Amino acid sequence: MFELGFSARNVLIGASLLGVAGGLLGSFALLRRQSLLGDALAHAALPGVCLAFLLTGSKSPGVLLAGALVAGLLGALIILAIVRNSRIKEDTSIGIVLSVFFGGGIVLLTVIQKMPMGNQTGLDKYLFGQAATLMPRDLRVMGVLVAIVLVLTWLFYKEFKLLCFDREFQASLGTPVRWLEILMTTLLVTVVVIGLQTVGVVLVVATLITPAAAARQWTERLGVMLFLAVVIGGGSGALGALWSASAASMPTGPVIVLCSSGALVLSILFGRSRGILWSSLRARTVAQRIRRENLLKDLYRWGESPGEDWTSEVSINLLTGMRGQGASRLLRVARALRRRGLLERTNAGMRLTPDGLLQAESIVRKHRLWETYLTRKLDLASDHVHRDADLMEHALDEEAVALLDERLGYPGIDPHGQPIPPRRAA
User: Are 402 and 423 in contact (CB under 8 A)?
Assistant: First the structure.
């Protein structure tokens, strides 16, 4: 274990504050598909830092960050103006503002460095950040700004939520949507300003988007996503600060980004909502359920054949021919159904149990009701509805089926002249 010094403690606090604010506002930017906006605002802040120094001659972080805030807001307004008053799309306008402002900032930075004592201004630290220069007064400013961001986000949480998911509906309610967008953008610029001294212009966007993208892999609920993004962002900031403090000459900003990127990789792999592993498991589970339901349906349809009933035994060879699948897979599906008490094996093959018949009837009922709906309501030909019904029979729940049955007037025959099984209690 090592003991944190004065500078390391400042870095730890500052990086954690940045991670919390970045994860929170980055989530809204991600959901609004404005991930590049944070990058543009960060690059737009550089000329503001340089102009603040040229106009005041002060190297005070408060003055320089105030200039960055003004330049960032100006960049955001220019992006909005371009989108509103031209045919240029938002992503293109973001690229324009990013490149023009950043190019102007580099020019101004070069001019300043050629001035007497220009190399001692330390403005180049705003490119890649220099967290070790954080002082208690800087932390107080960051703390106040983070508090403002948190309070305003809490106050306008419902409005921000609706803005992310249904902007048109929110506008129809009479909400000043344009002002809400300006407020959200202002908060995003504020977070960018908070991060300039810690991670710099180039990397600050990673503290916005990476925690939000990681949190998105775990949940479909906004409140939970915001909480996880704050935890991942703050945790990555703290871990990066501790890591850089424990290793000599390790830059804090890039290490913070690496920590948050590691969290993103783990989330992409193991995230419960959208992670690769869980998505694969869910897809496999759904595929297995569909195969079980298809076998039940095949057994039911065989029972409708002339001279047969649902107690009839069906051979393995016949079933493999009906579905065009191998006997080994069919037997695996049959074993799964037998474990659930829906099917029993016989000397000649297999047949449905009473519970299996009820479930098979439910599947066939969904299939034939959907075919009836497509032919009656959408005027599709009866020979064009089977494939779609094959998909929908696995997706419709009982509530949807009951509503469909009611809307169709409780039909008894499907478009192909086959009887639609009645609704039965499971």
Answer: yes
C-alpha to C-alpha distances, 278 to 98, 256, 269, 365, nearest whole angstrom:
37, 27, 8, 31
Predicted local confidence at residue 1, as pLDDT: 47
Nearest to 336 by CA among 319, 317, 356, 321: 356
Tokens representing 115 are 């001035």
Q: Which of 30, 12, 40, 39 is nearest to 214 (CA)?
A: 30
Q: Is the pLDDT of residue 41 over 90?
A: no
**pLDDT 10s digits, 58-88:** 777 778 888 888 998 898 889 888 888 888 8
The tokens describing 94, both together, are: 């973001």
Task: State the alpha helices, DSSP H only, in 86-135.
Answer: 90-113, 125-128
Instruction: Say what percent of the chain tops pLDDT 90.
Output: 30
Predicted TM-score (pTM) of this structure: 0.81
| CA–CA gap between residue 289 and residue 296 (Å, rounded) | 11
Evaluated on CA atoms 178, 181, 183, 185, the torsion sign reads negative
More confident of the two residues 117 and 335: 335
Residue-by-residue DSSP string for 335-381 = HHHHHTTSEEE-SSSEEE-HHHHHHHHHHHHHHHHHHHHHHHHS---
pLDDT in tens, 195-237: 888 888 878 888 999 999 999 999 999 999 999 999 999 999 9
Question: Which three-class secondary structure state does DSSP give residue 119?
Answer: helix
Neighbours of 276 (CB within 10 A): 12
Distances from the Cα of 404 to the Cαs of 323, 360, 389, 411, 412, in angstroms?
28, 18, 13, 10, 13
Q: Is the pLDDT of residue 91 over 90?
A: no
Asked if 10 contacts 135 with a C-beta cutoff of 8 angstroms, the reply is: yes
138 CB contacts (<8 Å, ≥6 apart)? 10, 14, 61, 197
Kindly state the DSSP code that residue 418 receives in the 8-state scheme: P
Q: What percent of the chain has pLDDT over 70?
A: 96
